[in-house]
Amino acid sequence: MALVRPSRRTLVTSFATALAGTAAAPATARAAAAPAPARRGPAPLRRAHAHNDYEHPRPLLDALDHRFTSVEADIWLVDGQLLVGHDAEDLTPERTLETLYFDPLMRRVRAHHGAVYPGHHRPVQLLVDLKNTGEASYLELHRRLRRYRRMMSVAVDGRVRPGAVTAVISGDRAARGPLEAQRLRYAFYDGRLDDLGGGSPASFAPLISGNWTQSFGWRGEGPMPAAERGRLHEIVTAAHGEGRRVRFWATPDTPGPARDAVWSELLTAGADHINTDDLAGLEAFLDRHGGQRR
């Protein structure tokens, strides 16, 4: 998903570069991915979402170091592999969804007795953005999720059993059909604003995401217009009334007063996830502004 931001980060491909094929990771890579000792630290930031997380030097791990509870990975189905990257030219065979996300998450969950963060059992969200072949990509992802089912949130006949990690499927809308047809799912659907008040329950689409620039003209300069503030609160209230969470992408992400103003409005309205590429910036903002309040 496109995001307004100062510049694209350069993809860093040093993580797990020796993992191509079936080769084992070197000791240094394994050490980098090892979970921290299982002690309760500062509370995770339940509103913090790492947009295009894989562009950071250490995908997933940098976000977790900054206490984020939601991370986003774009994936492409290429020759049967789920490769991570924003564009097709970014893809390399060692950067798979398993090596960058599922395997390190599983190690942490095992080390921390069933939780990504020790002592904190609220699920961490993995937002998986399908970039191509939506139906085929999702079905391949579902097949691979079975290996990690012990840590995943699961839906069976519309009843949800929370796990340490909740996978939510975004991107190519062709994934919706196979998701809806499944009796047993290890993933959920990322709805859109027009899903509010629709027929799909929160057990299927627990997240509602929208493009900020398509709903609001305000970009953080001057006061937020009252009508737009009212619409923001209406969206959040409607979603929460249906048991869903709310996220907007394409919010301003250049450090400064405008970004802080938009983030403050999102926080005040009760938006569940604040989107950013600036991990340290959002962590500091939420710590300053009581980001844990509802």
UniProtKB/TrEMBL annotation:
Gene Ontology annotations of biological process type: lipid metabolic process
SUPFAM superfamilies in the cross-refs: PLC-like phosphodiesterases
The keyword Mitochondrion is annotated on this UniProt entry: no
Superkingdom to which the source organism belongs: Bacteria
InterPro entries xref list: AIM6_PI-PLC-like_dom (IPR039559), HAT_RTT109-like (IPR051236), PLC-like_Pdiesterase_TIM-brl (IPR017946), TAT_signal (IPR006311)
GO molecular function, one term: phosphoric diester hydrolase activity
CDD domains: PI-PLCc_GDPD_SF_unchar3
Secretion signal, residue range per the UniProt entry: 1-31
UniProt entry tagged with the keyword Signal: yes
Keywords for the protein's UniProt record, in alphabetical order: Signal
Name recorded for this polypeptide: Altered inheritance of mitochondria protein 6
Taxon lineage: Bacteria, Bacillati, Actinomycetota, Actinomycetes, Kitasatosporales
